[in-house]
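Exercise 7.
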Amino acid sequence: MRYDRIKLLLQAEFKSLEDAKIILLGVGGVGSFCLDCLYRSGVKNITIVDFDNYDETNQNRQMWSELHEHENKVESLQKHYPEIEIINVRIDEKWVSDFDFDAYDLVLDAIDDIKAKLALAQKCHKKLISSFGSAKRLDPTKILVGDIWKSYGDKFGSKIRYELRKRGFKKKYKVIFSSEEAVVKEKGSFMAVTASFGLTMCAETVKEIRKIKKV
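Solution. The predicted structure, written as tokens, is:
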């Protein structure tokens, strides 16, 4: 059967994955692999949020992009993962402020907009898993997981920490980051890294689900 192998690992805890309700913000190079991993692991109650269309430059790192060039991302992904819910909207600071996250067990942040990421941290830190920069790097073995204040080696993350301090934010939440220094200044992307960020986010999500939904 489809989930026999993961059931061997999780045993009775597999039901916690089936019962979990997740919202994933951003389904690009990181988010699309996180989505695929969650879905194949038995997490089906997933809402994905994005506004973008696929273009040719996405095809080096984004799941299914080569099949749906110029098509809407969330609508295209729903064809491959029919049980998910989709929201086709640009994720910005106002949307985060207005949206009700209470129904979800976990909020997964795979977006690039700094103001939206800051708003998510302030609103959802208790159930947030956030991805920092996955671009400009070549070594997936340098990917780490830790709380926001222990992350390092990432200028994008450094800016987020700085802005959170300015806002008086002192809470902790989980982030995925790379300790590898950027290889280039431009926003080049290598699928081995971006996909590994997404798979790490999936693994951390499964870990958190098992904590909050003990069978």
